[in-house]
Fold:
Amino acid sequence: MFDKILIANRGEIALRVIRACREMGIRSVAVHSTADADAMHVRMADESVCIGPAPASESYLSMARIISACEITGAQAVHPGYGFLSENAAFVQALEDHGITFIGPTSDHIRIMGDKITAKDTMKALGVPCVPGSDGGVPDMATALRVAEAIGYPVIVKATAGGGGRGMKAAHGASELEVAFRTARAEAKAAFGNDEVYLEKYLERPRHIEIQIFGDGKGNAVHLGERDCSLQRRHQKVLEEAPGPVITPKMRAEIGATCAAAVARIGYAGAGTIEFLYEDGRFYFIEMNTRLQVEHPVTEAIFGVDLVREQIRVAAGMPMSFTQDELEINGHAIEVRINAEKVPGFSPSPGRVRMYHAPGGLGVRMDSALYAGYAIPPYYDSLIGKLIVHGRDRPEALARLRRALGELVVDGVDTTMPMFRALLQEPDIQNGEYSIHWLERWLASQFG
Structure:
């Protein structure tokens, strides 16, 4: 087992990893920018190293500075959290070249799944159901028109190197396709430096269902059920729950077994999430995230496992601490992402937190790096906390979420909490009857 782990991240996910390390008797190293000198993850880690100025490109995204911090502190392994360098194959390769263990999958697996076309081809070959679409990238408008006619409108144009909803445009007919194609390529070029796009069938009312998998890198893998992440704004998730309200035990067993078998065949190591669009009883693969997800706590809640601890164990060459037969769902869990943003425009709201009070009680977990007096910097993602609740069933989890939101206090900055309080009054949310388009339509109806 490792003696010391460096966490190449910040905020609540850095704290999450530090806590797992402490329970395992492993020393932790926090890295931070100058803007994060007073951050909670810096205060809680056993050691800390400043790796650069506020811009992420000069600190949290600097491979050389993170590797130097490992060498200075003697850290034997790096946990990437999510975001930043967590899915950067070149970073993993650089760590391997320096004899430092990356707590996650191999650089090859990250590279394969990082390109959406390659990922789709790989999953299709492994027997995972995929959305009908183009065979590879679409180089020009004439090809796009031919592909769209073949698979049928509506279609969606997607960047091959995309993520976070950038480089994605829908078209309901040939007249819309040219604008969608041109716009998606321009966005992809600006965001990712790669303007290659592909086409897929656009589903009208799908849900976003993702399967949590875990592999030991030696040909063994399990699944830990699904999460429903359908409440999204501009392809960004805002609420996640597990198990999914519309997924039956039979569906779960079948798609879970398919996913576990697929990653076992390629010798995948650590946590991963296979994401699907789900409509009319069918699953369609869209991408695989080769890292821990923001929403992993809802899976931990219903299965009673520590996924970060398991990541560390597997990276150290140890076997998984559970088998598929030992994984049983207990109750229902929901997570809401609390962002420092002003609704309805969702503009960032950095600033000083005058008062912070976390909710508590049975079945309530608050993952946050906030404290009274903390100044939220304007340089990074606006996520400031995740409120997770667990109940015996979905109605109890919803009741617990209402109560916990009533207790949560973040004073000094605008947050998305009022939106969640309003959402919980909606019959569709109470009944679990929503698709990936529901939230944006609701926001439009509420705020125009």
Q: What stands out?
A: The chain has 15 helices and 22 strands.
